[in-house]
Design brief:
By secondary structure, the chain is mostly beta strands. It is 15% helix and 39% strand. The chain folds into 2 domains: 79 residues, Beta Barrel (Elongation Factor Tu (Ef-tu), domain 3), CATH 2.40.30; 82 residues, Elongation Factor Tu (Ef-tu), domain 3. The two termini are 32 Å apart.
Length: 219
């Protein structure tokens, strides 16, 4: 479990095809590795990766085909800059929101606007994920916990302050940049709990405002 508050950035220094999937090495000068053990989880651009080899300046991890299919790892090259966050500990501050590191899909930046010192990014999301992205709700973009500040059709808006941009990969975002998107877990679990259908094969939501009201979540 993570918070979406990025601890450091790093770079992919190895991408090795290994018996059908991928092995990667991540290098970072700023991520403290002293308390990291083999088997620990580190969110890498929002993807929960398990440390299989540890170094003073980074780690190695394996990336499954499921992860490659759902994330940007299929397109990453050596030198790719990534956001890094170690797993949440019981005494950690929850400065962002609960992030699982299980990416739901890919979003694309379609517009960038300046608003005083902040920068507004409009992102296009897959249609199947839009229902989980409410105004003032939380999303994780490449592992960064952010608040949705606008909705328009199949797009949502994020407002980024200078500090967040400078400390993460957002500083390099531009129109056309594609990012890993994780929606708020509460929205997904809420749908699963109150839906009456157990037919997972349909992959269609039965969650409606009237159903939410019946369940007591709306007035």
């Amino acid at each position: 479990m993570f918070t979406g508050i990025i601890e450091a950035t790093g770079y992919l220094t190895e991408l090795v095809n290994k018996q059908g999937d991928l092995a990667v090495r991540v290098k970072s000068a700023n991520l403290a590795m002293q308390d990291v053990q083999l088997g620990d989880s580190i969110a890498t651009n929002g993807v929960c990766l398990t440390v299989v080899e540890k170094f003073s300046d980074g780690f190695r991890a394996d990336v499954s085909n499921e992860t490659i299919t759902l994330t940007r790892f299929a397109d990453y090259q050596i030198g790719q800059k990534v956001n890094l966050e170690k797993a949440l500990q019981p005494m950690s501050r929850l400065g962002g929101h609960l992030v699982s590191g299980h990416v739901d899909g890919i979003a694309e930046i379609v517009a960038v606007n300046q608003n005083a010192r902040a920068t507004e990014y409009w992102l296009k999301a897959p249609h199947t994920l839009l229902k989980y992205i409410p105004y003032k709700g939380s999303v994780a973009i490449d592992g960064i916990s952010l608040t949705v500040n606008g909705l328009e059709g199949d797009r949502f808006k994020l407002t980024i302050v200078p500090h967040t941009a400078q400390e993460t990969t957002i500083v390099d975002f531009k129109i056309g940049t594609k990012v890993n998107l994780e929606v708020d877990q509460i929205a997904r679990y809420l749908e699963r709990l109150i839906t009456k259908s157990d037919d997972h094969a349909k992959h269609e939501s039965t969650l409606t405002t009237s159903l939410l009201a019946q369940a007591g979540f709306m007035r």
